[in-house]
């Protein structure tokens, strides 16, 4: 249950756009505080575990004790295992719904308690050094807070979904100090569309989240002002898009490999039959061993390491070392998520993309003839690989713009992002989040609201008062009981009361006239004997059944085994209700409440 806002406040928020905007601003401010708090707690955990100086980044640190490098991630895995055991003992553990799933299937309804648990797990995972970012925890917790706020004000379904997007927008804006990035993250990934009705609340939330977070924590720029002068050597021309498109295609392939890698690790963990609480500890031990063998740069999200590479792109490490670091970081991320650590691939994909851009620029001597510098290729690769894994082409483009302030480079980023996004969409079809939904059996491709389809079921559409006749009824008796002009379709059941088929009354009368004294049976007039609907089918599945059977009406049975008739549904009524609901959703998306 949740606390309900006063009636006057609810009326104010529900009565106009200004109220929703004010609520979005409140959610944005709350998100800024939550992001700052999560970042502070995580940094304190890293400093305590690894003995870091105050404010030092784990992935940019050197000379860390070997035993600490090896065991600290495993210690975090043990703690996650203990939390998993405690959660198993709950009587009714609730499934945690992320913002995309909440908006796609549940009308923006999320659990604050579940979101808080995910945020706690994310803090432990990132703080102990597992190769995951905090962005998943940020968006989960902030969207959960916004959802609870909306439920308190009893928002309409469309406004509730928008407010969840506002929470996520504020979280990303606060994490990166990038309001445009946060806003388009919400439009593309959480709300699923851009509209005038959602523009103001989402942007207000993103601005509030960014401003509050900047006031509460230090956010060094990923690309320094001194580095802006090193983005290009000459004016950018159309020819400069050629290598950029190539980099975008490469990043698309790398992104697919990373997503497949996570799945392979998860499959391996399941095949090993390790107890679920043990898997994170083993995964943490593997991540620690990788860090010990290669570099601490693969630990945690990689903020410090990304700063190192963007401050000195292409010259700090050799190509072989960069390629090895890329492989190690990708492997560590796959092991971390696959073994049960909580987090996402948002920042990991940014770091991996920057490494891919460095390797690309260093391995192609002919690139010196083009305007972009190694730093520019690192920024372009960063956005192109991130869009392959996370999705959101405009989100990643605006991230590059807000980080660099360079419009010419942003144009090249857009070209690479489009190439990467289109390639992944056509060859793989999923982002990391929707791919995991697919593996779980959910047919979610985006955050577009499809939950209403699940509530528009055959049971809510069918006519329950259905006349039936036994299969052994004589044709003359059938005609007497169902003259021309009565309902045109009659459901027939067998001796056990199971569905046998549908008889059309006009066809029965015509058959009797053509029989010339013979006594034809109903069995020869049955239609759709093997075609039925069940009450749990949604309207979309029912419409597909009508198309497949070419029937105008189908019987509804309680189950495919029992086949007891419980109703009748016509194609015309199904399509009419489906079209009405589609139109209602369209009007809600455009902000038309009338």
Structural account:
With 594 residues, the protein is mainly alpha-helical. Helices cover 63% and strands 4% of the residues. The protein has 25 helices and five strands. The protein has helices spanning 7-15, 17-50, 66-88, 99-105, 112-128, 135-152, 157-176, 179-191, 196-216, 225-228, 241-272, 279-293, 303-311, 319-338, 346-363, 374-389, 393-404, 407-427, 432-440, 451-455, 458-461, 475-481, 505-515, 539-549, 571-589; strands at 468-470, 489-493, 499-504, 553-557, 565-570. Strands 1-2-3 form a three-stranded mixed sheet. It has a two-stranded antiparallel ribbon with strand order 4-5. Helix 16 (374-389) runs antiparallel to helix 17. The model has no long low-confidence stretch (mean pLDDT 85).
> Helical element count?
25
Fraction in helix: 55-70%
Largest sheet: 3 strands, mixed
The H/E string reads HHHHHHHHHHHHHHHHHHHHHEHEEHHEEH
SSE layout:
Layout: H1 7-15, H2 17-50, H3 66-88, H4 99-105, H5 112-128, H6 135-152, H7 157-176, H8 179-191, H9 196-216, H10 225-228, H11 241-272, H12 279-293, H13 303-311, H14 319-338, H15 346-363, H16 374-389, H17 393-404, H18 407-427, H19 432-440, H20 451-455, H21 458-461, E1 468-470, H22 475-481, E2 489-493, E3 499-504, H23 505-515, H24 539-549, E4 553-557, E5 565-570, H25 571-589
Parallel strand pairs: 1-2
Antiparallel strand pairs: 2-3, 4-5
């Amino acid at each position: 249950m949740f606390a309900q806002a006063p009636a006057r406040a609810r009326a104010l928020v529900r009565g106009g756009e200004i109220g929703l905007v004010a609520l979005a601003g409140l959610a944005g401010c709350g998100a800024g505080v939550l992001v700052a708090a999560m970042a502070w707690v995580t940094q304190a955990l890293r400093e305590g575990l690894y003995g870091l100086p105050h404010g030092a980044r784990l992935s940019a640190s050197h000379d860390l004790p070997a035993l600490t490098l090896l065991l600290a991630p495993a210690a975090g895995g043990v703690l996650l295992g203990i939390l998993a055991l405690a959660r198993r003992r709950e009587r009714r553990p609730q499934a945690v719904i992320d913002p995309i799933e909440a908006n796609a299937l549940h009308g923006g309804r999320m659990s604050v308690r579940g979101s808080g648990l995910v945020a706690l797990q994310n803090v432990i995972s990132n703080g102990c050094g597992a190769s995951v970012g905090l962005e998943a925890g940020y968006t989960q917790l902030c969207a959960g807070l916004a959802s609870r706020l909306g439920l308190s004000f009893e928002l309409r379904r469309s406004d509730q979904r928008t407010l969840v997007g506002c929470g996520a927008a504020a979280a990303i804006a606060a994490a990166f100090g990038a309001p445009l990035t946060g806003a388009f993250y919400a439009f593309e990934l959480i709300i699923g569309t851009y509209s005038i009705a959602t523009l103001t609340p989402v942007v207000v939330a993103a601005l509030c989240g960014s401003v509050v977070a900047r006031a509460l924590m230090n956010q060094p720029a990923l690309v320094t002002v001194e580095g802006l002068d090193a983005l290009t050597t000459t004016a950018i021309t159309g020819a400069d898009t050629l290598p950029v498109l190539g980099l975008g295609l490469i990043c698309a392939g790398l992104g697919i490999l990373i997503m497949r890698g996570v799945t392979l690790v998860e499959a391996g963990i399941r095949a090993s039959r390790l107890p679920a609480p043990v898997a994170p500890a083993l995964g943490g031990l593997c991540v620690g061993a990788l860090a010990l063998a290669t570099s601490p740069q693969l630990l945690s999200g990689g903020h410090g390491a990304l700063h190192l590479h963007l401050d000195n792109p292409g010259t700090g490490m050799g190509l072989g070392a960069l390629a090895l670091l890329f492989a190690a970081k990708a492997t560590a991320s796959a092991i971390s998520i696959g073994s049960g650590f909580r987090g996402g691939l948002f920042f990991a994909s940014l770091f991996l993309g920057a490494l891919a851009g460095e390797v690309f620029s260093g391995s192609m001597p002919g690139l010196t003839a083009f305007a972009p510098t190694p730093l520019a290729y690192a920024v372009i690769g960063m956005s192109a690989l991130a869009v392959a894994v996370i999705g959101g082409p405009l989100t990643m483009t605006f991230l590059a713009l807000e980080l660099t302030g360079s419009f010419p480079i942003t144009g090249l980023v857009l070209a690479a992002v489009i190439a990467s996004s289109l390639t992944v969409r056509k060859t793989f079809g999923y982002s990391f989040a929707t791919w995991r939904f697919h593996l779980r059996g959910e047919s979610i491709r985006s955050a577009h609201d499809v939950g209403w389809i699940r509530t528009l079921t055959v049971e809510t559409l069918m006519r329950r008062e259905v006349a039936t006749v036994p299969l052994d009824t004589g044709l003359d008796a059938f005609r007497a009981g169902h003259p021309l002009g009565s309902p045109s379709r009659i459901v027939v059941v067998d001796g056990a009361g199971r569905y046998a088929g549908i008889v059309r009354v006009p066809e029965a009368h015509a058959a009797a006239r053509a029989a010339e004294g013979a006594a034809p049976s109903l069995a020869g007039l049955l239609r759709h004997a093997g075609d039925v609907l069940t009450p749990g089918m949604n309207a979309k599945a029912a419409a597909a059944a009508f198309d497949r059977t070419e029937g105008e009406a189908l019987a509804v049975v309680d189950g495919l085994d029992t086949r007891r008739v419980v109703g009748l549904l016509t194609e015309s009524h199904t399509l009419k209700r489906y079209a009405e609901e589609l139109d209602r959703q369209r009007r809600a998306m455009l902000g038309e409440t009338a």
